[in-house]
């Protein structure tokens, strides 16, 4: 009836499922609610300390492991106890049964006298305290003797006695099977365990029958439960001890990790503060450098204008007055006046050259290529020498401080090439590769002495090199000089 009720309830549930729409999705609110619950649970789990999270995970893993270990040990102990009890009971029963079955080696049956003797043995008080039922099986599966006379001379399947016919003692502490030959024992309503033991011929040792008997299992079950309880107590105690030890170890490690995290967080904050401070300082330095470059150019322009409007005009006036004096001078004074005129003319020319060199043209709207062509052209016009330009691909646009720096760099190095190498082999090379701008000015002169490239002594040449280096490095560039007997190359490199 119970099985029918369960089957009917399953059928009703299946019918109810079929009445629903198979393609209808779950309600949106239900899906959202599940997602919110999972998020909330995940957030609560993350809020726990590492030691608590570890104990929870370790408890689950170690608990499952110990559960399987406890089950395995309990099962092994139960099997060992049952088998040991069965071996002892089999030895005990063999002593009583084997003398009565020796005649089966000749007739394959029991005589009436043997049956009566077995009945008296089964009814004896000493045996009945432990053994409640006895059966003797023939090798073909026929019960030739049984406490339950209703199954005597009946044949049953050989499944029960197969192992015993091979010489093994077989025992079972589980519930009795739903078979006719166990009906008498099931009606006793008490815990039993059945034992199958081979019965042998006393002369040859051959198995001539199988003895089956049912022994009361009350004391055995109590002993097994006691041992099983002890096993679980030991397993639980060991598990709890391991969890406690692991908890304190992980808790100590967690405290160390927390202290290190606090220290690292403080260091990170300090590093962040220093990084921001350095970035601010770098920004101020870059701004100051650009402002200094602008002010420097304005100063140079003002000096150039002052030279043009001051000394140049005075020298021009001197030359005019000398022309007036020359008309009224004697032949002896004429030679002195010519000497003064030549010196004044040279001074005026040099002042004008200095003025033109200090005053930059308007280069803000020029590209780098046009700027390099302009500075080379002006140098050629002023010195009468030739400058070769070798230019690769250059950036389309560049900031004004960089343009001013490049103009002054090329202008000063070309002046040095004209002054020290007589303008021989003057070459300007410029290329832009992998976001790096390389500018170099080379001449074909005899090169520079090693001490001439030092920047720690005075002198016009060294002051010019120092100014070039400071100008390039103030914009974050790299400055270098390569000099040999075949010429000198002054290089500047900027990462854009």
Would you kindly provide a written description of the structure presented here, covering whatever features stand out?
The chain crosses the membrane at residues 54-73, 231-250. It is an enzyme of class 2 (transferase). Residues 301-359 form the Signal transduction histidine kinase subgroup 3 dimerisation and phosphoacceptor domain. This is histidine kinase. The chain has 496 residues and is of the alpha+beta class. Among the domains are: 55-224, Beta-Lactamase (2-Layer Sandwich), CATH 3.30.450.20; 366-495, 2-Layer Sandwich (Heat Shock Protein 90). The protein has 14 helices and eleven strands. The protein has helices spanning 2-19, 28-47, 50-97, 104-107, 112-123, 125-128, 162-165, 183-186, 218-309, 311-326, 331-358, 368-383, 400-421, 460-473; strands spanning 131-137, 142-146, 154-155, 170-172, 192-200, 207-216, 387-391, 426-433, 436-443, 478-484, 487-495. It has a six-stranded antiparallel beta sheet with strand order 3-2-1-6-5-4. Strand 5 (192-200) and strand 6 form a beta hairpin. The two termini are 90 Å apart.
Provide key terms for this protein.
alpha+beta, Beta-Lactamase, Heat Shock Protein 90, 6-stranded antiparallel beta sheet, 5-stranded mixed beta sheet, kinase activity
Characterize the largest beta sheet: strand count, sense, and whether it forms a barrel: 6 strands, antiparallel
Structural class: alpha+beta
Return the string of H and E elements. Answer: HHHHHHEEEHEHEEHHHHEHEEHEE
User: Architecture of the domain at 55-224, according to CATH?
Assistant: 2-Layer Sandwich
Shape: rod-shaped
Q: What's the level 1 CATH class of the domain at 55-224?
A: Alpha Beta
Question: CATH homologous superfamily of the domain at 55-224, by name?
Answer: PAS domain
